[in-house]
Amino acid sequence: MRLIECLSEVYNSTMSNISVLQTLHDVFGYSTFRGEQQAIVEHVTTGGDALVLMPTGGGKSLCYQLPALLREGVGIVVSPLIALMQDQVDALKQLGVRAAFLNSSQDADETRDITVQLMRGHLQIVYVAPERLLMSSFLSLLDEIEQGAGIALFAIDEAHCVSQWGHDFRPEYRKLTVLHERFPQVPRIALTATADAPTRAEIIERLQLENARQFVSSFDRPNIKYRVTQKGASQKTSARQQLEAFLESEHANDAGIVYCLSRKKVEETAEWLKSRGWDALPYHAGLDARVRNLNQRRFLREEGVIMVATVAFGMGIDKPNVRFVAHLDLPKSMEGYYQETGRAGRDGLPANAWMTYGLGDVVSMRKMLDSGDAPEERKAVERQKLDALLGFCESTICRHQTLLRYFGEQHPGDCGQCDNCLSPVDTWDATQAAQMALSCVYRTGQRFGVVHLIDVLLGRNTPKIQQFSHQNLSTFGIGKGISQPQWSSVYRQLVAGGYLESDIEAFGGLKLAESAKPFLKGEAEVWLRQDSEVVATRKVSKAERGSRAKEGYEEVADDPLWHALKAKRMELAKEQGVPPYLIFHDSTLLEILNQKPGSLTEMSQISGVGQAKLERYGDAFLEVLEDR
Ligand code: ADP
Ligand code: ZN
């Protein structure tokens, strides 16, 4: 290469670097990239194809939005989530970007209007539903645009929708190869938060991305604190009370999601929380569509709303400040758990994933699986998935480590934030106890539930014991040295570990699994976790408070200026009919509170304040600061 060419290349790359950072700052208000963003943006901006695997909250949108702004022409974003398009476009408009969407929710006039703007090259980013994109009229329109103002890129969001194994399969996604065939010169970027290897391989194959560069991020969510507590560890506390104690001590004013398994439980829990003074709403597929939309809208647009929901809720919810996700019932798998808890803390601020579970859940989940109509192969897979989840629940090591290991990623552990790291769990030699527990199942004929089994072990004189003459058994009263909650914990762990199975024919009574034999004979050691007593009014430990306060979140809860800033944000949001986080994210508001900028120039240094927002809202927030 001649010197002059070499110099010009260096010059060009420095120039483009400057303009990349400049645009990042001017439009988005950020001064640095996160993780792999910079490499991705540079690769796509210079015309390369990319496959991006990044967890929820990792910052995927910027990876295609910024290159779309930096390249000539309009960026076309394919997205399957109609509900989300509106939000994304509103957010871009707030940043001063000329964006629009095209989907079936619009009438003919609107569609025509946007099409005209597209043809004239007035738009920078357009979101389209896959069915629209594949219409021959739309493809012809794209031909014309490519001849004229040009197409900057194609972004294929939620790329895992090409996979028929996932639950979000969209057949139209498979036809998206037409983009590559028809517009080979336009770069494509496919993005997903689903990381498993088979899905990744399928995306590459189905979208013909063999030559795309892969950008794989860590799937760790360091700002999420995972915690699993046991139901009934204290007999005086119900799961609801445990939930309320958790909310009271850590989320008195926060938005969050409470997941339940059944519609009935969703409604009951929402009702109960409401009666206790919480701003809680139900959401499940059985509710009238109008009510569902209304509740979702309130969750997004108001602050501090708790959504009690089945898993029907969550897909396409990208509210950044969901501060907690609570599970009152077990999720179905680790994948489900990761996805559901992943809806917390998209903004990177501290968030909690809290779950309470007990023996009853383990038994009923196993029963549900066994009694379903699914073919035996499928049941076997589901059983394995549930086992992995139960292993996670019962694990005594760092939750981040256990979770990531399941997805094939190494994590050093000792996150210092999860329950197991904050209060290390003791294990105890339960060999003898397990032997007693299993033998009690055997002696009673392998058909009774745990309540009765524990009564036998504790030597209680109940009518049922009389009825079956169980006071004459050798196991009657041999377990008096161990408390009722601890026996319950032993049984839970034995069921979770697969040593005991629930017998459907015997109405969920427990029977011995093949694997229990060595333990029954005392030939193998059993070590179990020592459950801590759950106290109804559990207060946040000092260490936990410390890590929240470090992020500057909890400290501000009582600060009047914080409330004044939030009130201003809500006022501006209501004026425009958008959710408050589209005006400024909590993290930006927090920085305004801490930095107290005294001028527009100082305000422009705050992360999340780009040119457009500075002009529109700078003065309003400066006034709030001055008034104090
Ligand atoms: P994903 O689509 O991967 O779930 P988003 O694109 O919604 O993630 O981004 C998650 C959050 O991170 C958003 O609040 C976004 O504004 C913020 N974010 C993204 N990139 C940056 C950055 N470079 N600096 C600061 N915040 C960022
Ligand atoms: Zn940990």
Name the overall outline.
globular
Q: What is the CATH H-level superfamily of the largest domain?
A: P-loop containing nucleotide triphosphate hydrolases
| Helical proportion, percent range | 40-55%
Question: Largest beta sheet, briefly?
Answer: 7 strands, parallel
* CATH level 1 name of the largest domain: Alpha Beta
The secondary structure category is alpha/beta
Ligand roster: adenosine-5'-diphosphate, zinc ion
CATH architecture of the largest domain: 3-Layer(aba) Sandwich
Number of helices: 28
The CATH topology of the largest domain is given as Rossmann fold
Low-confidence spans: 534-540, 545-550
Mean pLDDT level:
89
Count the E strands. 17
Q: Looking across the biggest beta sheet, what order are the strands in?
A: 3-4-2-5-6-1-7
Indicate how many domains the architecture comprises: 4
Radius of gyration: 28 Å
Distance between the termini: 62 Å
β-strand percent reads 5-15%
Write out key terms for the chains shown.
628 residues; alpha/beta; Rossmann fold; Arc Repressor Mutant, subunit A; 4 domains; seven-stranded parallel β-sheet; six-stranded parallel β-sheet; 28 helices; 17 strands; binds adenosine-5'-diphosphate; binds zinc ion
Concise overview:
The protein is α/β, with parallel strands linked by helices and 628 residues long. It has 4 domains: 33-216, 3-Layer(aba) Sandwich (Rossmann fold); 224-375, Rossmann fold; 427-529, Orthogonal Bundle (Arc Repressor Mutant, subunit A); 555-627, DNA polymerase, domain 1 (Orthogonal Bundle). The chain has 28 helices and 17 strands.
